[in-house]
Amino acid sequence: MNQTTLTAPVARAEALTKTYGSGENEVAALRGVSASFAPGQFTAIMGPSGSGKSTFLYCLAGLETVTSGSVMIGDVDLTTLSRTQLTVLRGGRLGFVFQAFNLLPVLTAEENIRLTARMSGRKADEAWFGVLVDALGLRPRLGHRPSQLSGGQQQRVAVARALLTRPEVLFADEPTGNLDSRSGAEVLRFLRSAVDAYRQTVVMVTHDPVAAAYADRVLFLADGRIVDELTGPTIDAVHARMRRLEG
Ligand SMILES: Nc1ncnc2c1ncn2[C@@H]1O[C@H](COP(=O)(O)OP(=O)(O)OP(=O)(O)O)[C@@H](O)[C@H]1O
């Protein structure tokens, strides 16, 4: 048993279900998903298209309501919070990175990086800002707007923005999905180093076995359920499990 399994989870889903629509349009996206995320653990979520990966991530991150079950962030059950309480908790304790970067085009890289911290009313930790900007190679680009940045640079700005508030969990939805393999590897290496150096907890949805192999473990979803788990994943092992799932 490694050390992380002895500590309380940072996030936990318990018997999570999510149904979209009703009547004949009803889709059961999650059918009873339970999982724990230990501090400093990097988890990848994989599975065939439509298996519920994004729904799971969004429910865990409080960006999507659940149909039943609970989502604990520390000792707070997100499913019991009001919309306002949820917004406050997300701004302060959770970080997000999306496939499409989601930067504001009129703001510079620096303004984008500072945005979440500013909106949650926090005073940015300037030393930490400097560490992130340097580790992500963004210092020469701070005055540039997103349209003047490459995709990889934009995603690194989004990662810095998400981490500036020192979130308990960083949620990433296909963070390398729009990047070439070199830019993708830079983002993944940085996420890995944030886990190793700062014990950042990361939960990442990906289709890419190469990306999943950066994680400590991979949870595999199929048809709204966790059907498999791999610890210490290698690219080949992830490929093999996915082939099995995709039949
Ligand atoms: N807003 C929605 N309304 C109705 N059905 C939805 C909605 N969002 C997702 N679904 C359905 O829920 C199921 C799970 O979707 P989800 O996007 O979570 O899967 P996924 O594994 O992330 O898929 P992909 O790999 O294609 O992104 C799918 O059948 C999808 O069509």
Automatic annotation (TrEMBL):
One of its GO terms (cellular component) is plasma membrane. It comes from the Bacteria. Gene3D superfamilies: P-loop containing nucleotide triphosphate hydrolases (3.40.50.300). CDD domains: ABC_MJ0796_LolCDE_FtsE. Pfam families: ABC_tran. Residues 11-247 form the ABC transporter domain. InterPro entries: AAA+_ATPase, ABC_transporter-like_ATP-bd, ABC_transporter-like_CS, ABC_transpr_LolD-like, MacB-like_ATP-bd, P-loop_NTPase. This is ABC transporter ATP-binding protein.
